[in-house]
Structure formats: structure tokens, C-alpha cells
């Protein structure tokens, strides 16, 4: 009875790492943009619209192709010796030479629809890429703000404890300790708001990348820094 359990565990140990490895946990900006192009719902809809436009163009152009078919069946043939049943088969075909430019007009319109769908897809991909970049940097900025706020809370707590020691020694008043307690409450409130903002940016990024992809990613990177010149003549 123990052997099957050992086999089952061996299978799990082999396949489990593969399933989790397929889900990225940390992605940079370039990879996030690539995921958005592949999985964003709006981009996928534009890509499907382009495929449909190409299919309509193919159907419009098919009018120029010759059509060939095969038909057959049973028939009765009259012969000098009498009627005789036989199975007949034949090949037929036709070619479209001219129908008043109707086919060429439909083909031209279908071609323009393909060009329109291609331009629309490129515009949507570009816009989604900009939105991903904005949401990505906004997420990093909120995360940096949270780190700064946590450090401020730590420093404030250190100062509060120092004032507590001085107050017990008679070197500080109770109002001095109250000042740091009020500041601690304000910092905690600010931290809570930043956590909410961070989650909003995460949710927005998930929507841009596609829900299935977005649920498994954690944006990583550094904020871009713009270095300005020191004086106007150097600009």
C-alpha cells in the first residue's frame, strides 16, 4: 500500500514546480508592456477585429477565383437494346469575368477595412502601453512613499521613547510626549491611505495586463530620475 503513495508524491514533486514556474511573480516595465499586448482585453478585441477584417477581405477576393465542382448520380440511358441504368459523374466549373465592378468594389472596401483595423490595433497597443507605464511607475512611487512613511513612523517612535525616558527623569513635559503620539496617529493614517492608493494602482495594473496575468505579478524596478541643469543658460 505504501508504494502507490510514493509514486504519487514523486509525480507531484516533478510537476508542481513546473506549474508554479509558469506564473511570474516579479516583472519589470518592459515585460509588463509585453504581457499587456498579449493579454489586455481591449488589445485582444482589436486583434480579433483585425482577423475578422482579413477574413472578409479573403472572402471578397475569392470572387475572382474559378470555381470547380464534381457532381454525379444514377440515371437511365436509352440505348438501341433498351433502357439501361448507369451511374454518371462529371466535373463543372465557372470563372468570374465581369459583373459590373461589383467584386472589385467589395474587395477595395474590404482592403480599406483591414488597413483601418491595423491602424486601430496599433493605436490601442500604444495607448495601453502608455497606461501600463503610468500605472507601473505610479505603483513604484506609492510603494516608495510607503517605505518613507514607515521610516518616519519608526523615527517618530524612537523620539517618543526618548521623550518618555526624559519625562520620567523630569527633563520633559507631558505635552512633549503627546506631540509625538499625535504625530504617530497622523503618520499611521497617512500610511493607511497610501496602502489604499497602492492597492488601487495594483488593481488598475491588473486590469491593463489581464486579470489572469495581473493576479500573479509584482511590479519591480526603479523610478526614472530626470536631472535638470543647474542654470538657465545650460538648458
Written description of the protein model:
This protein is an alpha+beta fold. The chain has helices spanning 2-21, 29-39, 41-61, 102-168, 174-209, 211-214; strands at 26-27, 67-79, 82-94, 218-219. The strands form two sheets. Strands 1-4 form a two-stranded parallel ribbon. A hairpin with a 2-residue loop joins strand 2 and strand 3 (82-94). Helix 3 runs antiparallel to helix 4 (102-168). The chain is rod-shaped, with a radius of gyration of 36 Å. The model is unreliable at 1-24 (pLDDT under 50).
Radius of gyration: 36 Å
Write down the overall geometry.
rod-shaped
Low-confidence stretches: 1-24
Give the helix proportion (percent range).
55-70%
DSSP summary, beta strand count = 4
User: How are the strands ordered across the major sheet?
Assistant: 1-4
Mean pLDDT: 76
Instruction: Give me the secondary-structure category.
Output: alpha+beta
Quaternary class: single chain
Q: Helix tally?
A: 6
Q: Report the order of strands and helices.
A: HEHHEEHHHE
Biggest beta sheet attributes: 2 strands, parallel
Our estimate of the beta-strand percent is: 5-15%
Q: Report how far the terminal alpha carbons are from each other.
A: 79 Å
Task: Give the helix/strand layout.
Elements: H1 2-21, E1 26-27, H2 29-39, H3 41-61, E2 67-79, E3 82-94, H4 102-168, H5 174-209, H6 211-214, E4 218-219
Parallel strand pairs: 1-4
Antiparallel strand pairs: 2-3
Helix pairs in contact: 2-4, 3-4, 4-5
